[in-house]
TrEMBL record:
Its cofactor is FAD. The keyword Electron transport applies. GO terms for cellular component: endoplasmic reticulum membrane. Belongs to the EROs family. It is a peripheral membrane protein. One of its GO terms (molecular function) is protein-disulfide reductase activity. This is ERO1-like protein alpha. It comes from Pelobates cultripes (Western spadefoot toad). InterPro entries: Ero1, ERO1-like_sf. The lineage of its organism: Eukaryota, Metazoa, Chordata, Craniata, Vertebrata. GO terms for biological process: protein folding in endoplasmic reticulum. It is found in: Endoplasmic reticulum membrane. Keywords: Disulfide bond, Electron transport, Endoplasmic reticulum, FAD, Flavoprotein, Glycoprotein, Membrane, Oxidoreductase, Redox-active center, Signal, Transport. Signal peptide: none annotated.
Length: 247
């Protein structure tokens, strides 16, 4: 597949890479870390002919994130998980004006629930906006004119390539969630790249200017839900590790 060599430096990020490319590597690493946290938290602990027991596998978590077992890579992976969390949190706070417009309607299949669902969504976005430690995306793509636009195009291109790679994954559930999270992250970046268009949205005619497709909206919030759950699971693993240390 062409131009996927952009990812080749993921494990060994050189200090001379530009901020944008380092950010790309960190996003991919954070996405991978989120998947590994879910795998460790929802692990098949025991299987009999009658039942299956799923739960937290501390050994599996340590194998993937412990500083000694990963030769220092584990803590960096977890930092990248928080990085992608802040990126997606920033995006959903930035997209508030798009969903807040009177013309935007969430079609739930039940007209009486459409407005209630929209109000709940807007409440969530306001909560995200009130978060005090937002990522400052102004540090990214701060180049001048064509240079900044070229970097944005590279980001979009490489995320499309990652989504295509997901098609090769054998496990259906892994492929589904991998593509969903990749598209969700891609949508988050689309929002951050489109701040001016969002700020200048017309009051009417949703087709004008910035626009999100239905599948992009679904992917955005599902992906953020998965990343948020991963961050929450870290608290559980931290408590389990502290309990083991005391015993």
């Amino acid at each position: 597949m062409k131009n996927t060599c952009f990812i080749s430096g993921l494990k060994h990020m050189d200090c001379d890479l530009c901020v944008e490319k380092r950010a790309f590597y960190r996003l991919v690493s954070g996405l991978h870390a989120s998947i590994n946290v879910h795998l460790s938290a929802r692990y098949l602990l025991k299987e009999t002919w009658m039942d299956k027991v799923w739960g937290h596998n501390v050994s599996e978590f340590q194998k993937r994130f412990d500083a000694l077992l990963t030769k220092g890579e584990g803590p960096r992976r977890l930092k990248n998980l928080y990085f992608i969390y802040l990126i997606e949190l920033r995006a959903i706070s930035k997209v508030l004006p798009y969903f807040e417009r009177p013309e935007f309607v969430l079609y739930t299949g039940n007209r009486s629930n459409d407005m209630t669902t929209k109000l709940l969504l807007v409440d969530i976005l306001y909560a995200a906006k009130s978060f005090p430690l937002h990522f400052d995306e102004n540090a990214l793509f701060a180049g001048v004119g064509k240079e900044a636009e070229q970097l944005k195009m590279e980001f979009r291109h490489h995320f499309r390539n990652i989504s295509k790679i997901m098609d090769c994954v054998g496990c259906f559930k892994c492929r589904l969630w991998g593509k969903l999270q990749t598209q969700g992250l891609g949508t988050a970046l689309k929002i951050l790249f489109s701040e001016r268009q969002i700020a200048n949205l017309p009051d009417r005619e949703l087709s004008q200017g910035f626009h999100l497709k239905r599948q992009e909206i679904v992917a955005l919030f599902n992906a953020f839900g998965r990343i948020s759950t991963s961050v929450k699971e870290l608290e559980t693993f931290r408590a389990l590790l502290q309990k083991i240390a005391r015993e």
